[in-house]
Amino acid sequence: MTAEIRTSDGELLSIKLKKVERRRRTTAFLLAAPLLFFIVFTYVIPIFQMLGRSIDNVQMNEFLSETHEVMQAWDGSEMPGEDVTSTFYYELKTAVENKYHGKIATRLNYEKGGFTSLIKKTSRKLKNFDENANFLDQFIDVHKKWGDIEYWQALKRGTDAYHFRKYLTTFDYEQKFDGSIERIPEKLRINVTLWLRTIFVAVGVTFCCFILAYPISHLLSVLPTRYSNLLMICVLLPFWTSLLVRTSSWMVLLQKQGVLNDTLVSLGFVADESRLELMYNMTGTFIAMTQILLPFMVLPLYSVMKTISPSLMRAATSMGATPFHAFRKIYFPLTYAGISAGSILVFVLAIGYYITPALVGGAKGILISNRIAYHMQQSLDWSLATAMATVLLIAVLVVYWLYNKIVGIDNMRLG
Amino acid sequence: MMNSKKSDFVKFEQVDKSYDGKELVVKGLDLDIAEGEFLTLLGPSGSGKTTTLMMLAGFETPTNGEIYFDGRPINNIPPHKRGIGMVFQNYALFPHLSVYENLAFPLKVRKVDKSEIEERINKTLKMVSLTGFENRMPAQLSGGQQQRVAVARALVFDPKLVLMDEPLGALDKNLRESMQYELKHIHESLGVTVVYVTHDQGEALTMSNRIAVFNDGKVQQLSGPNELYETPVNSFVASFIGENNTFTGTVKEIASGSAKIETDSGETIVANPIAVSSSGEKSRISLRPERVSIDPNEQLENKFTSEIREIIYHGDHTRVRVNLLGNDDFILKVPNASSDLKLNVGDKLDLGWSSHDCRALDY
After folding, report:
1. Which domains does chain A have, with CATH numbers?
2. Most B-contacting residue of A309, A318, A325, A411 (CB-CB within 10 A), to test interface
3. ipTM of the complex
4. Both B269 and B155 in a single domain?
5. Mean pLDDT across A107-116
6. Which of B217, B235, B253 represents a domain boundary (last residue)?
7. Which residues in chain B touch residue A307, judged by CB atoms under 8 angstroms apart?
8. Which residues contact A186 (CB under 8 A, 6 or more apart)?
């Protein structure tokens, strides 16, 4: 039986302790609060709103709410009945009157090509409709596509409030109107190629950074401070230069008439007519990204290596280990934390890299992020863009989660 | 020492070492270390003792001269082929390996088979009283335990020579003292040759068979702890080892075994000429506090009167600082058992000492 412990003024110790702790935590929270609110309102909320667009179709659902309602009873196996067509007619008429039929056309066009012209033509002819005759026949009279059942199936599907079909598109799959999921025709497939290429480039760049950064980090960690500071500045120099400037410099260096090719030709390594294709392909993306991301590998490696006492290697060799054996069994295992921290940083940055592949990548060197930008800015299929972005975000979070499970996020240090 | 053991098991021959090409850290070092000996390299920081140890371990290369180990020149043998065990200042335990794996490392490198590895590790851990700690990680051990693991790891592969670089420097005083005895006992029971570097004279005196006192890149004196304390050969050794009262003066008369020296204050002290040979030379006279008698009855060559300046109680003894012959920092040690003496600041006190205990050294 343990007696309750009280403080000198008679309060219960556990309660008193909580009070004191609470005050400390409140202070800590208040210190972090401004930044927290800033991040939540300018970053977290907008991002989740944006990501929500990948499944959100609420507006369409409202525009054609009655049609959607009525169509639930239609199984899609044969042409829709008059209940469906008449409801659609009246709702489309309202849309034309309120001038939002254009949005409906654009949105339905994502479900099935040809819908834009179909809706536009139908809207123009809507005033000629006889509201007492058969609507389906009149629709078909305006445009023969209305006789194709797939357009009605697309209309049904296109008015659902929420859907996950963009995620299928992200991986080059589509849902047929009969509900089956199939890969899209081979000549249209691009996303899976880009995903695989992105992962390949991210892994490859991480590996190249590791190979280049390991020896230099080691050197940094053993040099006397005045030399290591100078070398550290060289490593960090890229951080102080704009990303665009750095990428453009790589264009100057790597292009066919660029510095690197000129040098190789003048040294006689490469014939003038067969200059190397170093840009607008994967090679360019690889080289430029490796250089730009190198500091993110050097810093964590350096901070871990700095803590490894040189006497450990000496101890190992004094016990009879060859320098290589000592490195493999002692030094290298002690740098795992740095390797993993550097690798995850470089990998995560590389997997979402945009500007560099856009500028030096060409068609063969673009990555998934460039495709997301394309859908945001050119095709305007924001749902698809955000679906891809969501997949990318989840992939990164999974990598972080794995890292935290295996290594522990606390082991990440940068200096 | 047994006759079969080599007296020049390790031999430094005219070894110089310079890092920057301007200054010699070790100057013309000649040093023989006998087999089975516990030799301490003692000196202030920057005296070249650690550099000497590192050259023996193979982590530094002599700029000139040759080092022999067991009769072989080893300048061109890399550290991992020398077979010398080493205990480092900060223990240098491999933090990612357990105690067992740390100890197994030198054995695995030597391709010792599994059962023997286990046997040897058990034996060694028992020797340093760490049985049962096999699976602990170094970070889970106290400083003293880490120290024992480091020692065990340096001994587990039975090297003929073990080097220790200030291994007890990071421990607190009590632990340091008990580890000193423990290391001494391990050395005695194994008969391994130990070269030990420290700047702590107490440690050196407690543990060593012989001590090499380093200063300014040179061995100032190489002898047993006893001689080192009682008969320092120069004023550096006298001041570095133990407590020491000094007077400076000029030699007036010199005969065998005694010299008359006039101190700077004008009195004459009869001293034992160690590093002076002719009259007119400047000399520094060294006298251990415990060699001074208070109110001397017997016939002593040197008798003077002093004035008490400060009395400091030290538990087992009292230190009395007096002014004697112009020296304001003359220290006396009075055992507290005989404290029938009434001491007060400002009192006069008669002091005396034998000329034999008072050594006239270099200036």
Report:
1. 1-52 (no CATH), 58-162 (no CATH), 191-411 (1.10.3720.10)
2. A318
3. 0.80
4. no
5. 85
6. B235
7. none
8. none
